[in-house]
Design goal:
- By secondary structure, this protein is mainly α.
- The chain has one domain (19-334).
- It is built from 14 helices and two strands.
- It has helices at residues 18-41, 51-62, 67-72, 84-90, 98-117, 130-138, 142-147, 153-160, 164-174, 178-198, 202-211, 239-249, 269-289, 297-325; strands spanning 216-217, 252-253.
- Strands 1-2 form a two-stranded antiparallel ribbon.
- Helix 4 (84-90) packs across helix 10 (178-198).
- The longest helix has 29 residues, at 297-325.
- The two termini are 35 Å apart.
Length: 339
């Protein structure tokens, strides 16, 4: 009898063991951390990332100051659009310099994303996508939120509470059982309770800031392409279809990095590569479409959101919908175990 060896191919059905997933996550985390460090090292003085606003809020919590007022006192061009749950989770990084904190934050997020994607190794191609590249440039939460799909539900819920719309969309597409939903909700509630203990007034400040965020909208509302995504509901038994529709229906900043959870949908190397190329194209096109930010960044983002959103729908959401519609229908009992 010939000895058997564990083999995998970079194809449609192969998977990695947990040990191999951890190895891939460590390699990606270290490599992306080094790249992020170099990226921010060559920025001109005063360069910022989207993570910086949450770090400022966490630093204010550490000093018993109002996080929302503290950000307003800086040169950051926006109010704090994040709930205080994000700053609560970031509190350990508030003891580091902002430059080191942002690199560590994104390295951890990239490692968690790699772990989630590596179950099917072909999905690691997502690290070459425009969505991931923009997340790297901005030090965004999306890799961490997407990677949370495969960790323990209690921890997943805690992480998703930092950015509830995207977190809820990923939860809808990946949580399979009532027990998982209960644990995820418990994790989110623990973080919410901790944030309220740190600053009981933050919900009022957060909702006041959110009311003045005209650039935040749901992709499904962007005409004429947005409502077409709802056709994916004909495959509602497929968790990937629920992920696609949920993400399209959640209010969000209309940006390429917010589409990163869509890389949980492709099932083959070819599908993943197509989505990578389309994401790269979306990033290039949106950078070309965005108007000058010199006259007020918030106004420009609001004005460009419908155009950028139409680009993302055409190049990211609708191709994923086509992938789903081309699949054979799945029975409720055969929901896929691999997110």
């Amino acid at each position: 009898m010939k000895p058997t060896h564990h083999r995998f191919t970079f194809g449609s059905v192969s998977t990695l063991s947990t040990r191999q997933q951890i190895g891939a996550a460590l390699v990606v985390g270290v490599a992306i951390g080094a790249i992020a460090y170099e990226h921010y090292a060559i920025q001109p003085p005063g360069g910022m990332s989207d993570f910086d606003q949450v770090w400022v809020a966490a630093h204010a919590l550490r000093s018993s100051r109002d996080p929302y007022a503290s950000l307003a006192a800086t040169h950051w061009p926006f109010p704090l659009y994040y709930p205080l749950t994000a700053a609560t989770l970031t509190l350990p990084l508030a003891f580091l310099s902002v430059s080191l904190a942002r690199v560590l934050f994104f390295a951890l997020g990239s490692a968690s994303l790699a772990y989630a994607l590596a179950k099917r190794p072909h999905r690691l191609l997502a690290l070459l996508s425009g969505a991931f590249f923009q997340a790297l440039i901005l030090a965004q939460w999306t890799p961490l939120l997407t990677g949370a799909a495969v960790v323990a539900p209690l921890l997943s819920g805690a992480i998703w509470s930092a950015k509830p719309p995207i977190g809820l969309a990923v939860a809808i597409g990946t949580l399979r059982t009532r027990r998982a939903w209960i644990l995820a909700a418990a994790g989110a509630l623990i973080v919410v309770a901790a944030s309220l203990l740190l600053d009981p007034r933050w919900p009022l400040n957060f909702f006041d800031a959110a009311r003045h965020a005209p650039h935040i909208m749901a992709p499904v509302t962007i005409l004429p392409l947005g409502p077409i995504v709802l056709l994916a509901l004909v495959r509602w038994r497929d968790p990937d279809a629920r992920l696609l529709v949920a993400l399209a229906c959640m209010p969000q900043t209309i940006a390429v990095h917010e589409t990163l959870p869509l890389f949980l949908i492709p099932r083959t190397r070819r599908q993943t590569m197509i989505l990578v190329l389309l994401s790269d194209g979306a990033f290039a096109v949106t950078m070309w479409l965005l108007p000058s930010l010199q006259d007020g960044r918030e106004v420009s983002l609001a004005a460009s959101a419908p155009l950028v959103g139409t680009c993302l729908l055409a190049l990211c959401y609708l191709p994923c919908m086509v992938m789903l519609l081309r699949r054979p229908p799945v029975a409720r009992s055969s929901d896929e175990a691999i997110p």
